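Batch manifest, entry 17 of 40.
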Amino acid sequence: MPTIEEYTLLAKGSKFKDADVWGENVDRYFNNTDEMTMWIDQPSLVPFLKQITDEEMMIERTQREDGRCFETFRRINVFAGK
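Output type: structure tokens
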């Protein structure tokens, strides 16, 4: 994934005006592993799953004793106008 700085350079070097790029922490709790799996299986995340080995899968590592899962989720937002 590109960094915020890399996204900023790409946005400002494009035809867009007033590009604004910022990061966001959106930590999530899931009630169970099925809920987390459904979130991971979104179309926007599927291409990234090819890059993750079985050892790196987060479900087992993030599951709490009560069955809930916690995942630290980082998002990079880009807003630009024509």
